[in-house]
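Researcher: Next sequence.
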Amino acid sequence: MNTFCRRLLITLFVSTLPAMAAAADSLPAQTAPQTAPAAAQKSSAAATPQPVQPPTTPAMAATPAAQPVVRIGYVDPIRVSTDSEPGKAGQTKLLDLKQKLQTQIESKRKQLDKQRAAIEAKLSTLSPQQRDAKGKEFGKKVEEFQKFGQNAEKQLQELQQELSNALYGKTEQAAVEYGKTNGFMAIFVKRDLLYAAIGVDVRDVTDDIVKLVNAQDRKK
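Model: Next structure:
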């Protein structure tokens, strides 16, 4: 190689050194390729504001919901019988029959007393056979009188039962209507109440039931 060519190569090599050095300075460091992104993420996370979380507090006890009031009513059947119009009418009907039967019983009793007195007045004049016959005859009349009294008592009981059933049916019908209209859970026959829990409204609705029974009876 001649001298001119050697000088030309040296000149070109020397001229390229600054460019190579600049290129080397611009390359990223190769020693820690993984640490740079982590540092960038940490810096980014520190720069980004995080939402403030409210302080945690113990769970508050749930407030119990208001319990609905349970409304229960009761009816005094004796007052319905004595105060209502159907009850009074039934009592009057029962009393009339009782008085009628008592009059008949008293009349038959007086007849028996007269017959016994007549037999006793003649005993001294009667033979033993006649006395025995009179005794049997009078005994049959006494049996008839007793049967009449038993039958009269049976009539009174049957009428009383009939009137009681009729009045009970009217009271029950009135209680159903009244209970549904006024929001009652139940309406029952009066009993001695020993306990009622909080939220249970127990009422005497006898007066209202009597009024409703009267109103229903007038419609018929």
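Model: Confidence is low (pLDDT under 50) at residues 8-47. The longest strand covers residues 70-75.
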